[in-house]
């Protein structure tokens, strides 16, 4: 029996998780990436922690989840966002909430994820996830356009039923599809 080695084997993936109901899908995404042989480091925004726990993502990734700039405030230890941005083979922001998209598109930097993005030298992939009206708002569409202009890959948001009960674009790309997109990129 031959075993196929994934193109993600040994890849260093930074996964940024922002505050969207779709954050629950990040646990499945971490699991799939690790199963494909990737080393996954999760960066959780403060809003994301309301939707998915660091314990879950840390257990699945086998790495501590990074949430803020400081590791240990008393000791003055901090999470080096520049090092993280240089370490990664790819930064994947999934889900990318409207707020996080606005931060990334406009250079705002009050979360660790924002700082990592601004320091990243690796390819950046963004999977938007929000309600229909938020997704279709001209400000959000402008932010998505700006992120594309910066050279980031913005995955289209598929249409379907949303948490609000509305139907349309705004869903996060499914974890299996994100892994497939990354495999295509690294092939």
From TrEMBL:
GO terms for cellular component: phosphopantothenoylcysteine decarboxylase complex. GO terms for molecular function: FMN binding; phosphopantothenate--cysteine ligase activity; phosphopantothenoylcysteine decarboxylase activity. It comes from the Bacteria. InterPro entries: Flavin_trans-like, Flavoprotein. One of its GO terms (biological process) is coenzyme A biosynthetic process. Keywords: Ligase, Lyase. Its EC number is 4.1.1.36, 6.3.2.5. Residues 12-183 form the Flavoprotein domain. Coiled coil: none annotated. Gene3D superfamilies: Flavin prenyltransferase-like. Pfam families: Flavoprotein. This is Phosphopantothenoylcysteine decarboxylase/phosphopantothenate--cysteine ligase. It comes from Hymenobacter luteus.
